[in-house]
Amino acid sequence: MKRTMITALAAAVMALQAGVSWAQSRDSFTIGGVVPLSGPYALLGTSMQKGAEIAIEERQKVLGVPVRALWEDSETKPQTSVQKATKLLAEGVEMLFGDGASGQTLAIMPVAAQHKVPLIVTTSAADQITGAARNHYTFRTSSLAFAETRMAIEFVKKAGLKKVYGLGVDQPVGRDTWATMKAGLAELGVAAVGEDFAPIGNQDYSIIIDKIAKSGADGLFVTMTGADTITFLKQAGQVKLNSSVPIFGTGFLDDDAANAVGPAVVGVNTVARYHFSYDTPENKAFVEAYRKKYNEWPNAYAGHAYDGLKWFFDVVDKTGSWEADKWVAAFESSEHPGSVFGPRKMRACDHQAIGVGLWAQAVAGGDPYPPFMLKVTDTFPPDNLYPKCPN
Amino acid sequence: MSIIIIGLSISMLLFLLAAGLTIIFGMLGVVNFAHGALYMLGAYMGYQMVQWTGSFWLALLVAPLLVALVGGLIERFTLRPLYDRDHAYQLLMTFGCVLVIEEAVRLIWGVNFMAMNAPDVLSGTVQMFGSTIAVYRLFIIGFGLALSLAMFIVIERTSVGMMVRATSSNSDMAACLGIDVVRLRTLVFMAGTFLAALGGTIAAPLLPLKLGMGYTIIIDCFIIIIIGGLGNIRGAIIASLLVGMTRAFGQQIAADWIGLLTYALLILTLVVRPEGLFNRKGREA
Asked: Are A161 and A221 in contact (CB under 8 A)?
């Protein structure tokens, strides 16, 4: 009995050692994806995974070895994110990729930094990620809330709006965004004629819609997401609010939501974090590869996942080194000429990617496109969009 | 004045959602936690009917009937063995049903949002008292009033209603008097699930269809039936009006206080009249 136990123990130790030596042998470049594959943000995670897979397939090899990905479901919960990130790091991944919700990303940032492993953020938009909570190993290749609000202000300027009403989700992000927006409007001399905040999952917007219609506003700024956006736009559409008070917002609407709203969505304006209709050769190639593999149009989460990973792979490959610190140093001051958004660059001061901002309007699609979709109508140069570099 | 119209539409929607829960709660004494999931199933079935037939009206009839059949199966195979046990068992069992229904919907329709729109005839708007009101909202008001009247008549004025009331006050005695209590319970549960699905189909043009949409209404439903009194149709109507109007006027006057006002109403009712505002002693319907 005792002998069998000792043998088993020895076998286990050997197996463990084999595992360790496998991780160190570097026969592959392994990325660890921590994304929400279940929970409220499941759509984000699955899309990110799909976009990342295209980048991996396109690249094939980094530093002369095949690229592969280990995926973990962070369940839209910050606590799970930390557990899964820790697990991936224990398995010896070279870099982390994720997460979905900003709260999750903020939770895994210190974990990545502790292990001195780069974390590439391609979805979460909270300002803190490259602001107050930034660290040496975290890079964001996607946009941030601040830039989106700046774009909305640019839109107000261009459209010549004079009286704007604010509607947001009753959460810090909704109230903060409207506060930033109001400050921007005041600088332009545009009046904020009213505001309302509705809880997540609010079922009835009829009174709010009536208030907006009677407020004399010539524009409605909306900051909410997902199901709330759809509920609001469906109910606003039933009284044709958009025809009297044009609706616009910061990244509150995407193609999936547009289709869930139906005909009422046509004419609504929004920041587009990414869109498959954006006309660059790189984007066309990506969209084609994506369509071929998944038979669907890529959304913003897939587009940014692809673009961010592609960028990072380029940088790593160029260093010719397996040292994470060299990748970080190179990524900090890198440019991304082959971006689907047109040339972009990384800011060394806060690890925030800088590029043009896309503005879009919802339109009826029609074959081969989805019935309703966004269409990029304007681009804003990066000059005014990003926060100042921290000291 | 337009606030009253809008408040009325909010109230009637709340009533439509809570009606099924209140009769199951009142008549069977079952806290049907699966009410929200059945509401969701009704919305998805309605969506599917519209996809197949293109007719909202057909969906409004067929979807609730199909869900009522599901309700019948749930009652027969999960609740029937549990009536004699503590309420906690029934609560747990219906919660189990929630998980099964959620998974089934995920397998059949996937995780993406689905859209169902109001039929063309109800898609217009009318000007009333200086506000633009959607015709669909007026339809909800009319439908809610008609349904509440029909339910009231069935429960208070028909022999079936009398049997249901008898069963709910003393099922053993009712059985002695020759009422088929077992079958009656199944029918009541099916009627409750029919109403849940009807609520889902009616609400579908106002909301995105998604997994978990049932959770967002279940709290509102419980508020209505607690304020109105368990199983009390009249109470449910008044409670819906109270909550609906509180929300309508609250949003207009003090938007940040709506949640607080609604729950204060609930707590006040529980403290002052724990049996519900409109429950008279010895009367269950």
From this structure: no
Residues 6+ apart with CB under 8 A from B170: none
Do B208 and A208 count as a contact with CB atoms less than 8 A apart?
no
Residues of chain A numbered 243-282 and touching chain B (CB < 8 Å): 256-257, 259-263
* Cα–Cα dist B243/B246, whole Å: 5
Residues B113 and A260 sit within 8 Å (Cβ to Cβ): yes
Q: In a 3-state reduction of DSSP, which class is residue A21?
A: helix
Cα–Cα distance measured from residue A205 to residue B3, given in angstroms and rounded to the nearest whole number: 12
Q: What is the pLDDT of residues B85-108, one digit of tens each?
A: 888 888 899 899 999 999 999 899
**pLDDT reported for residue A20:** 45
Over residues A195-248, the pLDDT tens digits come to 999 888 888 899 999 999 999 999 999 998 878 899 999 999 999 999 899 999
Among A201, A203, A213, whose Cβ lies nearest the Cβ of B132? A213
The reply to whether A208 touches chain B by the CB within 8 Å rule is yes
Rounded CA-CA distance A6/A3 in Å is: 5
Amino acid at B147: L
Q: Does B120 touch chain A (CB under 8 A)?
A: no
φ, ψ of residue A219 to 5 degrees: the values are -160, 145
Question: Which residue on chain B is closest to A201 by alpha carbon?
Answer: B216
Spatial contact of A313 and A62, defined as CB atoms under 8 Å apart: yes
Contact present, A75 and A36 (Cβ < 8 Å): yes
Comparing C-alpha atoms, which of B217, B69, B237, B81 is closest to residue B152? B237
Considering the entire predicted model, what is its pTM? 0.81
For tokens 């919660």, name the residue.
B95
Is A197 at the interface with chain B, CB within 8 A?
yes
Report helix angle B2-28 to B233-253, nearest 10.
140
- Mutation to test the A interface, candidates B131, B224, B252, B256, most A Cβ within 10 Å: B131
ipTM for the whole predicted complex goes beyond 0.90: no
DSSP output for A136-163: TTEEE-S--HHHHHHHHHHHHHHHT--E
Q: Is the peptide bond before A99 cis (omega within 30 degrees of 0)?
A: yes
CB pairs under 8 A between A and B: 96
Q: Is A120 left (phi over 0), alpha (psi -120 to 50) or beta?
A: beta
Place of tokens 């539409």: B9
User: What's B119-147 look like in SS3?
Assistant: CHHHCCEEEECCEEEEHHHHHHHHHHHHH
Cα gap A173→B145, rounded to integer Å:
39
Check CB contact of B216 with chain A, cutoff 8 Å.
Answer: yes
In a mutagenesis test of the A interface, which of B111, B123, B132, B247 is the best target, namely the one with the most A β-carbons within 10 Å? B132
Q: Do A234 and B207 touch, CB atoms closer than 8 A?
A: yes
